[in-house]
Amino acid sequence: MSQLPDAALRVHVALHQAGIDSQIQQLDASTRSAQEAADALGCRVEHIAKSLIFKDENTQKAVMLVVSGSHQVDIGYMATRYQLNLVKADADFVRKTTGFAIGGVAPCAHLTPVALYLDETLQQYPLIWAAAGTPHCVMPLSPAQLASLTGGQWISVCS
Hints:
This protein is an alpha/beta fold. It is built from five helices and eight strands; from the N terminus they run αβαββαβαβββαβ.
């Protein structure tokens, strides 16, 4: 694992500490967007678990939504259903909060605590792919492993 970048090594440690046997894969192609990741992996875009960081305007704290690559978060729905007044976080906030750059944000191993929610539609796929710390690193997980690794709550992210 020493050939992995430092950010991906942090994710590897988190996987190991959680008892999850998943191998981080470093790809030549970028996985910065859900579609790029799906193309590089040869899978469908809905099997990509994209990690999106928002700021809750109520608390000014970070909120991560791990969402199927085929979904868009409905901000109005999130406010009405869950009382989360979300605004998209800028790159500096994302890096300070998670320790990762946009396009490689892993759903775990963050520098600071993050409220974490998981798109319930990801549960229908036996295998999903999540970013593993850089725009070129990904990891395969089952939905159960994702939930165990993150402690995230399964919710609906769009109406």
